[in-house]
């Protein structure tokens, strides 16, 4: 059977990259798959978080999921820390994954910075917890932005090594050849890597000190308009076809954003704007972005005003997630050789 899992960290400043690269994809997969969408609060604490802010941000990401159109009745929406099986399976995976694999993770190198000795052990083990998130539900498909590709490769490596290391036991317990699936990343659409509005060589990120680098999902129409008008571009008019965007990262980025918001391709957008100046294109982009994001921002605001409702959605989702996760964890314990109550 086919199942989708994905996660978003509650670290504040949810932005257009998260929306276009991930959350819109989550929404569109709902008709084809059983989906599990998780607010990964345990991943968030791999770097220091203010506790009250963390609580607020967990509700904010949940509100974004709901405001964008994820249906928490048909699918599962919950926060990671309510299902302790994630942490349990992560420990087993810490004993499957190799230190050499984790040493190659570019995101760890970026996030740990120069003072690597002082990074948390959790930040280092982050991809192992991520593999557990996915595989505790034996998810087959994971929609993410481009920046998560390496982590998903590690997830497949962990699944494969677990299947190999325990092959005899897996077969003996009647699970056949492989216990964990080799999960497929879904990195799709024209905006899998949305770049900073200030610098076409840096990705749009929650932690960029400049608020002008990103459009936040909570930005109102004025902020959206200002940020797009100030976005960096070059001096040339827009080309007639996609090949003309090759050495123009800022132009390419704005085109990708437009295409993703309009639900079309960069090529199709260029057919309408070939030869146009950026001033005209940016005006159209402002209108489109405000039309798409405005209602989401106000619905998020309404939802975070009702924390009891959000917390209920999360608790209900966690109850349903736990049933699946517990059954996987029971099987894993048997495969590894642990003793458990029956
Ligand atoms: P996070 O919270 O950084 O980002 C959430 C999602 O948004 C995507 N994204 C982007 N997409 C396009 N352009 C951008 N500039 C951009 N910035 C972020 C990310 O690729 C992601 O899909 N490790 C994950 C969270 C996680 C997870 C998981 C994901 C934990 N466990 C299991 C999938 C499955 C992260 O930090 O995402």
From TrEMBL:
Biased composition (Basic and acidic residues): 199-211
EC number: 6.1.1.2
GO biological process, one term: tryptophanyl-tRNA aminoacylation
Catalysed reaction equations from the record: tRNA(Trp) + L-tryptophan + ATP = L-tryptophyl-tRNA(Trp) + AMP + diphosphate + H(+)
UniProt keyword annotations, A-Z: Aminoacyl-tRNA synthetase, ATP-binding, Cytoplasm, Ligase, Nucleotide-binding, Protein biosynthesis
Region named Disordered: 197-216
Protein name: Tryptophan--tRNA ligase
Family: Belongs to the class-I aminoacyl-tRNA synthetase family.
Compartments (UniProt record): Cytoplasm
CDD domains, A to Z: TrpRS_core
């Amino acid at each position: 059977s086919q199942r989708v899992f994905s996660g978003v960290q509650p670290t504040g400043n949810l932005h257009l990259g998260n929306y276009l690269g991930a959350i819109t994809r989550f929404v569109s997969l709902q008709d084809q798959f059983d989906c599990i969408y998780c607010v990964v609060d345990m991943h968030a604490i791999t770097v220091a978080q203010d506790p009250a802010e963390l609580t607020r941000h967990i509700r904010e990401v949940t509100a974004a999921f709901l405001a964008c159109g994820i249906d928490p009745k048909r699918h599962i929406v919950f926060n990671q820390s309510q299902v302790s099986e994630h942490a349990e399976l992560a420990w087993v995976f810490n004993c499957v994954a190799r230190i050499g694999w984790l040493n190659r993770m570019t995101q760890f190198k970026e996030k740990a910075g120069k003072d690597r000795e002082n990074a948390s052990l959790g930040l280092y083990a982050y991809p192992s917890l991520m593999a557990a998130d996915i595989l505790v539900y034996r998810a087959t498909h994971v929609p993410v932005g481009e920046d998560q590709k390496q982590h998903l490769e590690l997830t497949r490596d962990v699944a494969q090594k677990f299947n190999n290391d325990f092959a005899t036991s897996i077969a003996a317990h009647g699970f056949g050849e492989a216990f964990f699936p080799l999960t497929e990343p879904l990195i799709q659409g024209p905006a899998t890597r949305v770049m900073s509005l200030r610098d076409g060589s840096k990705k749009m990120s929650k932690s960029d000190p400049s608020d002008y680098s990103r459009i936040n999902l909570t930005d109102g129409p004025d902020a959206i308009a200002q940020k797009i008008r100030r976005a960096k571009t070059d001096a040339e008019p827009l080309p007639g076809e996609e090949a003309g965007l090759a050495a123009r990262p800022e132009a390419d980025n704005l085109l990708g954003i437009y295409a993703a918001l309009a639900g079309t391709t960069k090529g199709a957008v260029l057919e309408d704007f070939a030869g146009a100046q950026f001033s005209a294109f940016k005006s159209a982009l402002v209108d489109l972005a405000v039309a798409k994001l405005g209602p989401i921002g106000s619905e998020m605001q309404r939802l975070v005003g009702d924390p009891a409702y959000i917390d209920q959605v999360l608790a209900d989702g966690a109850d349903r997630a736990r049933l699946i996760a517990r059954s996987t964890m029971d099987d894993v314990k048997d495969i590894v050789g642990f003793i458990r109550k029956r």
